Amino acid sequence: MSELRTLLGETVTRLFTDLVTKELIEAAEKGAWPDRLWRALEEGGLTLPLVPETHGGAGGTWEDAHVVLRAAGRHTAPVPLAETIVGSWLLAGAGLTVPPGPLTVAPVRGDERLGLARAGDGWRLSGTATRVPWGAAAGHVVVVTDVAGRTMVALVAAGTGRADTDRNLALEPRDTLTFDEVPVVDAARAPDRLPAHAIRLYGALVRSAQMAGALDGVLQQSVRYASERRQFGRPIGSFQAIQQQLAVLAGHTAAAGIAAEQACRAAERGECAFEVAVAKIRAGEAAGIAASIAHQVHGAIGFTYEHALHFATRRLWSWRAEFGSESRWAAGLGHATAARGAAALWPDLTAR
User: How far is CA 258 from the centre of its chain?
Assistant: First the structure.
């Protein structure tokens, strides 16, 4: 592990442990912006791990970012940290200035597209993007779209379009943003290797890392509860049925974590579509099984709002559908594999 990765891990774990309390998450779910948490993340250099040091970032790799993202998922941090990491990386890669404050990205759904057109010396943006994470709360929106066969990255200031607010199952903001030929702050051509669907691809990558972290948290809570809750005179974790379920939970958690880590490693190399698809599929499958087991282990207490388990399980249920569900990624992976032919299947698998 690199020195930067070790430092990031220690810093983000300490920060989240101190600041991401049950009270803070509950307040965020009621609409309060966690300003103190966000300022601490910015001051600690945790919002820009992929931005070069010459542009105010940490100058790290996707593996470094994975440490931050997984910790954010483990502690269910109620801020658009993942979106800011992706957005700032896109801006820096296109040579654009990264503004301070939280960022979000759009469009996040594969069937939506925003139009970018020249207007004098600048650019104007049109179209509608739904389910945008923290669309109304973020200071800027980073857009990736196709213009005459070229992939473009644009930066849009908050408030230039109309925002219709909504929330996901975890009560995180998921808003609809509508732009009607609004001027953008800046726009530039993306690097050649960046696809037009980059937001969906890298959004799935960061969600996979967050889900791996949330699975870590679910496993830790379940093991702790099973060792503390006593029934028939002994901890319920001593019963074979509970032990077997916890073992299944641990297996899915480990598999999802490894897949997410491998996807971040592939992102650093460049082409990562295969690994991201695998990570999103594996994390999505694990989410349903893990949440089910965790709630069974906790019994009735795990279904109450007063208990903290639901902060993680509701995010797992929500995140598995964002930036493409596991079924959509599985279908895409299957089509891509079939198109390459049977002879390429084994080399493709063993090359990774």
Answer: 16
